[in-house]
Amino acid sequence: MAYVSSGTTDFDSRQFRTAMGQFCTGVTVITTIDADGAPAGFACQSFAALSLDPPLVLFCPQKTSRSWKIIEAAGNFCVNILSNHQQDVSATFGAPGTDKFASIEWDPSPAGLPVIRRSITWAECTVERVEDGGDHLIAIGRVTTLGEMLQDKPLLFYRGGYLSTEHPRVTPAQAELDDFLTWTGGDTWL
Ligand SMILES: Cc1cc2nc3c(=O)[nH]c(=O)nc-3n(C[C@H](O)[C@H](O)[C@H](O)COP(=O)(O)O)c2cc1C
Fold first, then answer.
1. Is the model's pTM score more than 0.70?
2. For the chain, which domains are there?
3. Does residue 139 have its Cβ closer than 6 Å to ligand 1?
4. What are the residue boundaries of the Flavin reductase like domain, all occurrences included (predicted)?
């Protein structure tokens, strides 16, 4: 008989959070502009590329997020992918505050959304669809503009703290990358 991994069905939200914190992610700041022209945004690790054709991304805001309400009303947002020089930016946007942009240098994207300086890259998106996700929402966006890319290393978030990569990553062959987002079967994956 095969070995059965032991586990527990009796876990609380702290244990759940600790387990999920073993999954290392990048960090983004999702920004927008409100009806009065003021910038808004929040730090977000639950960002992912979703589809290549059409070009879709997703992120998961808490239902209580003030920035999400502004993004939903605006109908568009900009994903800023943070570099390892921007831990302070993550901390600023990861805490509630009346003027998170006070100490932040940013430039407008083509649609006027905040592009935070020194971000590795950015993507301007329109809100395509929103799904329920328990105490969060799943927001799906269509990418309309891609920003320039810097060669900096990413800021990583792991076990509730920040990390960065020590070495430049090994770039896989282009052929391996081509179907990355549209993989539908077979047993190859990056
Ligand atoms: C590294 C990091 C990652 C985060 N990821 C998320 C996330 O994926 N979804 C979310 O709703 N909040 C996330 N947060 C928390 C929000 O950024 C934080 O609650 C913020 O105060 C929300 O601001 P808002 O009310 O203006 O939306 C994250 C915070 C940090 C520091």
1. yes
2. 24-160 (2.30.110.10)
3. no
4. 20-164
